[in-house]
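A favour, since you know our structure tokens better than I do. What I am after is a single protein written out in full by you. Could you add the entry underneath, on a fresh line?


***
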Amino acid sequence: MPVYTIQAPDGHEIDIDAPDETTAITGAQQWYAQNVKTNSQKKDTSISGALGQGVSDLVSGVGKTVREYVSKDAGDAILSKDAAKANPNYKSATQQFMHPDDGAANHTLGLDWSSLPRAALEQAPGLALDVVGGVASRRLGPVGQYLTGLATFGSRTAGNEAQRRASARTGDANAEPTADDKLSGLQSTLVQSALNKIGTNVIVNPGKVAGTGITGAAQAAGNVAKAGVVEGATSAAQDAVSQGMANRGTEVPFDTQTILGAGVLGGVGGSIFAAPKGVKETITASRMRDQSSSEATTRAANRVLEAAGGTDKLVDPKAGYEATAAAMGDVRRELGDVASTVRNASHEAVSAIERAKSGGAISERDLKAVDAEGNPQLSDLVRQASALQKLTKYGTFNEAEGRFSGGGHQIVRKAAWPLVRDATKLGAVAGAVAGNVDLGMITSHVPEAMGGLASALAAYKGLKAVDRALGLASPAKTFAEKFGDATTAIRGAQPLNQSPTGPKVVPQNSLTTPQPWGPIPEPPQKFKPDIVEPGIAKIVAKLQKDKQQQTAKEALPLLRKLAEQAKPPAPEPPDTTLQDAIKAGKQVVKDRQWADQMRQQYEEASAPQDTPQVKMEDVFKATQKLAKGLQQMADLRQKGLGSNQAEAEAAVSPLIDSVGGLGEVRNPAMGKRASELISAANALKKLRAVPEADSTEAPTQPSAEAPQADAPFVLPESPHVFKEPKDAAEAIYAEAVAGGKAIRHAEGFKAGTTRRLAGEEAIYNQISNSLANVSERGAFHKYLSALWGSDSPEVVRQVRSHMLGEFPQHAGTIMKHLSDEAIKGLWTKPKKAGKG
């Protein structure tokens, strides 16, 4: 057969075997129509097309879920929307990425990496919806977060899962899902939602970046990498669950390429969505590289949070300024209180403390000098002051305007203000009519001024949004978020008296009685030989004499130390607190007891022997007189120190200031006399209120009087507050007997009183140690004397009411340690445990 060459419309030539030319032309036309598409469009592989495909997948997924599980009509209505319709000319990047057109063997890991950017964009809308849901449900708890994730993920997935199951079961891509298919799809969605929450949570709630500088940048990069790995792993697991639920009971195999591709896309998406937070943390770590990630910095950040009332409120520049200024003021006041208790500090430490109090910069050398003082609270407060001082340098801390903000938008704000003022001057147009001013000249500048103002405003808004995203707009908020936490206390519990330069006291064994130079030595035992023979008595006598002389020699240095301790010092400002004075008074009493015990031991050692002995009785009488005199001198000194300390505390007391200052109440007799006069006045008032009775008629029934106001309660005082509870109980017993009180069981009375005083002292210490600062503890000192001076549970309750009135902010602590049950226990003899 002849071969005919036919030219096609596109210019190509077609060779065809045919019996004649007509048949050849007809055959060429048929072949051309079947094999060549005319006017065919090129496939869309653009970035915008990828994003549009992702949106249409999201909307159509919601429509399918509504159609299969809620309402067919409602679902069809959603699917009919333009947003749910994919571009028919768009070529899926996800499909091309997982299953390349030219075969998996031609690509690394069988994936077309050139399609990865578009494939990641196709997944972005769905992942963005999950992240938004995770952010919105942060405060809803685990259950609320899961339900939110189920709503965002399940709403676009359940319908697709049901259709996928129907297609795998029937082999028909357009098969309608049955009830079993829908149930399978719902089960698959529930499992995938739990996995999806794990990945989303790592993106929304990354680990806290506590480090600064390079360390902080590395931590931020680690969070981004972790988000990518976790999201990739959960995405791969979700695809495996989807295939397993859809293909169960069928011969359709697992598609490992799809699982691998889903893991890669999830890893890329997780890293991309975690990157903004990582960039912000990296910038913050670089800006705040001069801060230390210490507990002191955390305390400073917590102070800012406490003053603002929450992190969100620090977005306002004025709130940020007020919170930062309040935190700085609190630290400086507390630093001043603590610094006033430090004695003999080095010149470098004093200079560093003063710089910290005035808001100056603190160097590492300054911190080392302060640390050398050995006062942890002082070092902590200086570091807090340094952290807050550095914070003010991260932005514009404007004291004149009361604003604290940062970032580039502040530059535009400063530049825009002159334009705003110029624009407001155009209001003079209204006066131009009345003032015969050239109105045309003014209005000619309006477009230029308004155009410049609009440009400045747009630049300001844009830069402000960028600054907020990068953590630059509010330095106070960024500082609080980075270093603050909910576990570190703002003020650590510190002892009332800080004196690092004083003597170091070595703790004694709890089984021994505390003494000024250690436990009481055991009394010397007399030498008693088992066999008394002639000649041995002389040896015994000599040993007794040598032992007595040696004991006397050992006692003299101890007595000299006691004398030096009680020697009156040169006049100087008091450096002790009232609590120290109480302790010192108790210690002097212990010293006296020790001296008496030593005397008793020596007297026992000097008992009459067969041979003449050295008599120490006269020596100890003189020593006792000396010890009494020294003890009285020590008491006077401690009383003076306590009085001076009380004067210093009262000088700054708000209570004293409210009645006119220290001069108005300096004389203690005035307070006692005032109390007596108030009591007398109330008594006289009651007497005058009673109506005079008729002298001829006796009242047949008692008349009811209106209740009169009682005299104001005055805190009792105990003169024995400087003594130990046991010694104070002895003194109280002696006073009771001298006052004519009949006490049947003296020892029981003393034991009960000792127990009550010890319990009241323990309660006082527990409440005092929980107070916030030195001023409060100083004002609370008087309550130990008041508790010891109370002679009944009712008086103790009145003392407690007085405490609550003066310290209402510590009502919970006071009621915890001084409850009605605790008061009852002070005055009730404890029950003895039964014999087991």
Summary: The beta strands are 3-7, 13-17, 396-398, 403-405. The radius of gyration is 46 Å. The chain has a mean pLDDT of 75. The first helix runs from residue 21 to 35.
